[in-house]
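Quick question, first post here. What does this chain look like in 3D?
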Amino acid sequence: MLQKFDRRYGNFPAPVIFGLSGTTLTADEKAFLKDANPLGIILFKRNCDTPDQISTLTASVFETLGRVVPVLIDQEGGRVQRLSEPHWKPYPPAREYGLALTRNFANGKQFIIDTATEMANDLTALGISVNCAPVMDITYAETDDSIGDRSISKDPYIVSTVAGNIIRTYAEHGVIPVAKHLPGQGRATHDSHKDLPVIDATPEEMRRTDYLPYKELSTKTYNEALWGMVAHVIYNAYDSRVPASCSRRVIWDAIRGDVGFNGLLISDDICMDALSGYGEAKHRAKAVNRAGCDIILHCDGNLDDMKAIMTEIPEKMPLTSVERFNLSVGWVNRNSKNKA
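> Answer (accepted):
Ran it through. Tokens below.
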């Protein structure tokens, strides 16, 4: 189980989550992690071979950092599934959950809960404690294929119902969920992995659709467990110059304000080409941190870039970010059925 940080001692980690290069922790990575003390790590296919190998890798990270750190993964199902055959079953894309709920509400809801339970159990068995899911972006006619069937539905109330069941189920089985991509990427017509999308919708339009699933979930107790991932997308109505992840206006006026999201915010991967205008990774990390993201996400495992990032960001998470982290961890630890 993850542990909360004690504010009395100020022994907070750095506000960053890093990727690793391969299936084992190298000597250089061990030395770096021990010195940098990041909040956690994120795993990709390059890091995942067999169950025993992943368990050994996560245990090595815990030993190196002297604590059970958050280990993140993108295990949505469908096209985005880092754990795959032959050791893990293929899971359906999010669109299938929305369709199942539409066909038969009771059966669809049980299908969602059963699948999310199985996925959560897969993760906790490996020492993975955070899943970057569900995708809560609304489907539009113009939605780019990079989102596509990762989106649950065009109906925000179906998105809310499906996402709520996934979030609660993950949290009740020891996995922190991460909703993405705030404040809503469904209207984007480009892939932020390759380009910088621009969304022209007004705040009023987004309040009627994109923000609704978050508003619906905000009254649920399990919403305390939820983290949010901030999109690398320009929202012209709030800030026409920089993407959400680097914009104080979007983070504070749209995400914290209009959406009303109060949980821990992590950036989308700063290695993505949407942030190419910021230059090197260290400059991207600095921009994301200054904008108000609680946590910087750097995924490609480039050790030189990770070292450079640590020269440009604070050594420790601020107390407000720690409190958001503690709230999430506290809810999961109190309510988890997978007590370790």
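Residues 105-124 form the longest helix (20 residues).
The chain has a mean pLDDT of 96.
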